[in-house]
Amino acid sequence: MDQQSTDTLFDLQVTQDAKSQLADTAQWARFLAICGIIAIVLMVVAGSYLALVVTRTDPQFKEIYRDSNMTAEGLGAGMVVVYIIAGLLYFFPCLFLLQFANKMKQALAAGDELLLSESFRSLKKTFRYLGVITIIFLALMAIGFLATLTGD
Q1: Nearest CA to 122 among 144, 101, 100?
Q2: What share of the chain in percent tops pLDDT 70?
Q3: How many whole angstroms separate alpha carbon 113 and alpha carbon 53?
Q4: 53-99 residue pLDDT tens
Q5: What is the pLDDT of residue 143?
Q6: CA-based Rg of the chain, rounded to a whole angstrom?
Q7: How far apart are the C-alpha atoms of 20 and 110, rounded to whole Å?
Q8: What is the DSSP string of 35-89?
Q9: 61 with 146: CB under 8 angstroms?
Q10: Is the pLDDT confidence value at 132 over 90?
Q11: How many angstroms separate the CA atoms of 69 and 75, rounded?
């Protein structure tokens, strides 16, 4: 294939309709990213508070763990750590999505190809991150399933 046809193949033009679609996509991405960040904060704060309060005040928890090495407070602290880890795992795709939305908005307003490329790079990071996390969770689920089949 000669150099001329390769250059024209990748020399894409963004039409007015495509700009409109990208602007709408950026608005929805921004909305979802902000809602995701708010949900993360609420999940970590409310989940941590509830985990600590319930394990410290509920007599049932204290009775269950009375004769074991684990305490109800230890369980509550463990639950807090789980909420924080879950929040951290979900924070990064929200951040990448927000970066995509902001850069896309700027790129469309300024007609800047570099910002347009950076915005798509942020979108790629979002999907790559979610894909890796999905693969990890599927692998953990498969390991757990196999462990239940072979365990007592």
Answers
A1: 100
A2: 80
A3: 52
A4: 776 666 666 665 565 556 666 777 788 888 899 999 999 999 999 99
A5: 96
A6: 23
A7: 14
A8: HHHHHHHHHHHHHHHHHHHHHHH-HHHHHHTTTSS--HHHHHHHHHHHHHHHHHH
A9: no
A10: yes
A11: 11
What are the tokens at 8? 């024209």
Burial class (CB in 10 A: 0-12, 13-18, 19+), 144: exposed
DSSP secondary structure letters along 79-142: HHHHHHHHHHHHHHHHHHHHHHHHHHHHHHHHT-HHHHHHHHHHHHHHHHHHHHHHHHHHHHHH
Whole-number Å distance between alpha carbons of 42 and 84: 11
The Cα–Cα gap between 18 and 116 comes to: 12
Assess whether pLDDT exceeds 50 at residue 108.
Answer: yes
Q: In terms of pTM, does the model score above 0.70?
A: yes
- 21 residue type, one letter: Q
pLDDT tens column, 17-39: 999 999 999 999 999 999 999 99
Nearest to 41 by CA among 83, 75, 101: 83
CA distance 149 to 143: 10
pLDDT of residue 50: 82
